[in-house]
């Protein structure tokens, strides 16, 4: 075995004049503003992934350089420019926000670097703007709400009120639930988003209540999620207007809600492609070590970031650390030959994951900590709806 | 558009307007009387929320949290006045903007170090978590409390400015600062007091909003912009102007968010209405400000002597 490895090493040394023994990954996320709570969770997951890899992919040392997008597309583009041009990274990963990713994608792709989204999944990049050098370890925005729409149909919900922030992902989420939900959408609000996002939803909740809908569907990631759930409960809508959310109740908002003893959130349901209780070896190791190191459950942002680093590491290892072998790296990324924490998945024609979606419920774990567990599988090997618009084969 | 919903939205608008008034009144006091542009007013709003959140979690009671956080916020206001504001009174507005903008960054980062980036959800006692039924109108009881507290603060401020010796000095200071100090009034402690009062009002607004939106880093930055719109529309330095403009902006913003898409649907396609209504309602208050400035360049109620 050692001999084969040595031979392989020699072969790779022989095949490239200069062996690139270091690979650089730029990781763009939000490390300031209230949304930094998401960025920190992702950064923690990246650090844990590097620790699990011992800082190496095969024989290649991995260096991660973090960049802060400040929750704004223009800042995100600037920091991406810096990573690509000044630091000359080989991969740019991360991106919580769809509008930030859309603003930054061209910088990375024009420089013939690889772009790995660890969260944002705007419809444009899955469809017309798809690119051989772009990969996602998360989902296409529409998919999670589509799964929720399917759940609503199964539960016999006939009319729905929809609320989401007014930006690229918010619109995709609304489009997603509208695509699969068979009942009537009786009202819709898109609220102001960004560093000065609207967090007081009194007017919208009053409208939702007056609409007489069977349920309310919302998408409020980050701090806005906690604020929304608070006001939803204060308005006394729990019994008359059941809440169906995506990316709103997560491992980041639950500890805060638990500390404020905010019982209303227990039992609420959301859809997702991953859950801390998923039974596979990679996930168990990830969740256990994450909890041991940081004291909280990892969020789905963390899981996707961990996967992003593991995917990149698998590609670097596959080409033996030769970072100039772009075709080899591309093929290796596309193969997705690593142990993902979500279990088996593959990349579709547009390099979006083809994966399962689950319905999760907020529960109390054995230690009394609030977390989620899987209730049922909604979709098996789901392909996103924009794959057909992608010209790539 | 039924009457019940309209009434609820009016009350929601009133509540938003009163919160805006709490922030704007402090801003207009400091800007109008001290002639000092305090962007860091937003940070005092945030600090109020965080301090109150800490006290609430520590004591397990929101009301005690507010009562203890108010003097602490006033104290923070005094320190900011002494350390940052006082040396800058004589400088021009640009220097003050620069310094107080820097102060925002410092306080935001300090808050992140102390309380972490996650923000704090503030628990309320049970009697405030429910709803109140008035006829056909159901409102969260906490929102009613905000309306009550806002009206009380406005009344208290009105009384203070118009019927007390301190208020007389404040008004005199606003009209002619040199004359007031020539009459033997300690203008420095008067200014410090006004600054602390403004800080307390901003802090109170932060404390009242925290149980709704959580206390979070940078939470004041969006409010401060709207508060500037309020004092510009109302007339800089005018308490009455701030009050009327705050209620006006609160109502316009809330009603715009509530009914604009329905109104647009009357004249354009559903899809066009759904896309344009959120954009227009986000711009609405600035459109109003531009319109007011076009007709009354110094605001609706400019103070008489400046």
Radius of gyration of chain B: 20 Å
Instruction: Give the biggest sheet of chain A.
Output: 8 strands, mixed
Total helix count of chain B? 12
How far apart, in Å, are the first and last alpha carbons of chain A? Answer: 37 Å
How many strand segments of chain A? 14
Report the helical percentage of chain A: 40-55%
Sequence stretches where pLDDT stays below 50 over 5 or more residues of chain A: 13-18
CATH superfamily of the largest domain in chain A, called what?
Response regulator
Mean pLDDT of chain A equals: 90
Protein topology:
The complex is a heterodimer of chains A (393) and B (306).
Chain A: H1 2-15, E1 22-29, H2 36-52, E2 56-57, E3 60-68, H3 73-86, E4 91-94, H4 98-110, E5 114-117, H5 123-126, E6 134-136, H6 143-154, E7 159-165, H7 168-180, E8 184-191, H8 202-211, E9 215-219, H9 223-234, E10 243-246, H10 253-259, E11 269-272, H11 281-294, H12 300-318, H13 326-335, E12 346-347, E13 353-364, E14 370-382
Parallel strand pairs in A: 1-3, 1-4, 4-5, 5-6, 7-8, 7-9, 9-10, 10-11
Antiparallel strand pairs in A: 2-3, 11-13, 12-13, 13-14
Chain B: H1 3-34, H2 41-59, H3 62-85, H4 93-115, H5 126-129, E1 131-134, E2 137-140, H6 141-163, H7 165-175, H8 177-182, H9 187-213, H10 220-234, H11 239-267, H12 270-295
Antiparallel strand pairs in B: 1-2
Helix pairs in contact in B: 1-6, 1-9, 1-10, 1-11, 2-3, 2-4, 2-9, 2-10, 3-9, 6-7, 10-11, 10-12, 11-12
Family (chain A): Belongs to the leucine-binding protein family.
Domain Leucine-binding protein (chain A): 23-365
Keywords (chain A): Amino-acid transport, Signal, Transport
How is this structure best described in words?
The complex is a heterodimer of chains A (393) and B (306). Chain A has 2 domains: 2-139 and 278-355, Response regulator (Rossmann fold, 3-Layer(aba) Sandwich), CATH 3.40.50.2300; 143-272, Rossmann fold (3-Layer(aba) Sandwich), CATH 3.40.50. Chain A has 393 residues and is of the alpha/beta class. In chain A, the strands form 2 sheets. In chain A, strands 7, 8, 9, 10, 11, 12, 13 and 14 form an 8-stranded mixed beta sheet that branches. In chain A, helix 3 (73-86) runs parallel beside helix 4 (98-110), helix 6 runs parallel beside helix 7 (168-180) and helix 12 (300-318) crosses helix 13 (326-335). In chain A, a hairpin with a 5-residue loop joins strand 12 (346-347) and strand 13. Chain A is globular, with a radius of gyration of 21 Å. Chain A starts with a helix and ends in an 11-residue tail after the last strand. Chain A has helices spanning 2-15, 36-52, 73-86, 98-110, 123-126, 143-154, 168-180, 202-211, 223-234, 253-259, 281-294, 300-318, 326-335; strands at residues 22-29, 56-57, 60-68, 91-94, 114-117, 134-136, 159-165, 184-191, 215-219, 243-246, 269-272, 346-347, 353-364, 370-382. The mean pLDDT of chain B is 89. Chain B is 78% helix and 3% strand. Chain B has a two-stranded antiparallel sheet with strand order 1-2. In chain B, a hairpin with a 2-residue loop joins strand 1 (131-134) and strand 2 (137-140). Chain B has a domain at 11-218. With 306 residues, chain B is mainly alpha-helical. Chain B is globular, with a radius of gyration of 20 Å. Chain A binds chain B through residues 32-34, 36-37, 40, 166, 188-192, 195-200, 202-204, 206-207, 210, 223, 226-227, 230-231, 233-236, 252, 255-257, 259-262, and chain B through 2, 4-5, 8-9, 12-13, 15-16, 57, 112, 116-124, 129-131, 138, 140, 142-143, 209, 211-214, 216-219, 221-222, 225, 254-255, 257-258, 261, 274, 278-279, 282. Chain A: It comes from Marinibacterium profundimaris. Chain A: Keywords: Amino-acid transport, Signal, Transport. Chain A: Residues 23-365 form the Leucine-binding protein domain.
């Amino acid at each position: 075995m050692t001999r084969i490895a040595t031979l392989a090493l020699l072969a790779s040394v022989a095949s490239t004049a200069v062996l690139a023994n270091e690979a650089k990954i730029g990781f763009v996320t939000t490390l300031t503003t209230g949304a930094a709570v998401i960025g920190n969770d992702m950064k923690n997951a990246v650090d844990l992934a590097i620790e699990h890899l011992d800082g190496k992919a095969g024989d290649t040392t991995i260096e991660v350089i973090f960049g802060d997008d400040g929750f704004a597309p223009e800042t995100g583009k600037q920091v991406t420019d810096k990573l690509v041009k000044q630091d000359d990274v080989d991969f740019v990963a991360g991106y919580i926000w769809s509008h930030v990713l859309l603003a930054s994608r061209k910088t990375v792709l024009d420089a013939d670097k690889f772009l790995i989204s660890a969260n944002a999944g705007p419809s444009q990049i899955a469809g017309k703007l798809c690119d051989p050098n772009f990969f996602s370890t998360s989902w296409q925005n529409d998919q999670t709400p589509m799964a929720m729409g399917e759940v609503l149909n199964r539960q016999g919900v006939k009319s729905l009120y929809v609320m989401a922030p007014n930006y690229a992902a918010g619109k995709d989420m609304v489009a997603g639930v509208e695509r699969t939900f068979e009942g009537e959408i009786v009202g819709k609000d898109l609220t102001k988003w960004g560093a000065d996002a609207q967090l007081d939803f009194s007017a919208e909740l009053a409208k939702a209540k007056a609409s007489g809908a069977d349920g309310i569907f919302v998408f409020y990631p980050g701090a806005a999620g906690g604020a929304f759930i608070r006001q939803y409960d204060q308005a006394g809508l729990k019994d008359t207007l059941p809440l169906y959310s995506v990316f709103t109740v997560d491992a980041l908002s639950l500890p805060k809600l638990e500390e404020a003893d905010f019982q209303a959130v227990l039992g609420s349901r959301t859809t997702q492609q991953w859950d801390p209780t998923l039974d596979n070896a990679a996930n168990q190791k990830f969740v256990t070590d994450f909890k041991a190191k940081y004291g909280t459950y990892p969020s789905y942002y963390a899981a996707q970031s961990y996967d992003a680093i593991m995917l990149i590491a698998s590609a670097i290892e596959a080409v033996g650390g030769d970072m100039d072998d772009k075709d080899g790296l591309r093929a290796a990324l596309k193969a997705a030959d690593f142990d993902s924490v979500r279990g088996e998945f593959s990349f579709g024609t547009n390099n979006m994951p083809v994966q399962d979606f689950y319905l999760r419920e907020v529960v109390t774990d054995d230690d009394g900590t609030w977390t989620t567990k899987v209730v049922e599988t909604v979709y098996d090997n789901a392909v996103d709806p924009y794959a057909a618009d992608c010209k790539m084969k | 558009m039924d009457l019940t919903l309209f009434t609820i939205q009016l009350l929601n608008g009133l509540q938003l307007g009163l919160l805006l008034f709490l922030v704007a009144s402090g801003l207009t006091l400091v800007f109008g009387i001290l002639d000092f542009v305090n962007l860091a007013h937003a940070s005092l709003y945030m600090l109020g929320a965080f301090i109150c959140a800490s006290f609430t979690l520590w004591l397990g009671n929101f009301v005690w949290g507010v009562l203890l956080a108010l003097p602490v916020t006033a104290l923070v206001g005094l320190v900011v006045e002494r350390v940052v504001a006082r040396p800058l009174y004589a400088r021009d507005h640009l220097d003050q903007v620069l310094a107080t903008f820097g102060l925002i960054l410092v306080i935001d980062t300090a808050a992140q170090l102390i309380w972490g980036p996650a923000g704090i959800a503030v628990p309320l006692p049970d009697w405030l978590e429910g709803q109140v039924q008035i006829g056909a109108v159901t409102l969260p009881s906490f929102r009613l409390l905000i309306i009550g507290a806002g009206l009380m603060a406005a009344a208290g401020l009105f009384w203070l400015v118009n019927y007390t010796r301190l208020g007389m000095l404040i008004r005199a200071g606003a009209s002619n600062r040199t004359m007031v100090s020539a009459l033997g009034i300690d203008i420095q402690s008067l200014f410090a007091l006004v600054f602390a009062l403004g800080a307390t009002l901003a802090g109170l607004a932060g404390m009242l909003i925290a149980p709704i939106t959580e206390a979070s880093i940078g939470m004041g930055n969006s409010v401060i912009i709207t508060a500037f719109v309020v004092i510009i529309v109302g007339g800089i330095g005018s308490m009455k102007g701030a009050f009327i403009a705050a209620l006006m902006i609160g109502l316009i913003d809330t009603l715009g968010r509530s009914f604009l898409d329905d109104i647009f649907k009357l004249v354009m396609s559903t899809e066009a209405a759904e896309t344009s209504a959120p954009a227009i309602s986000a711009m609405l208050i600035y459109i109003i400000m531009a319109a007011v400035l076009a007709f009354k360049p110094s605001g609706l109620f400019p103070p008489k002597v400046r």
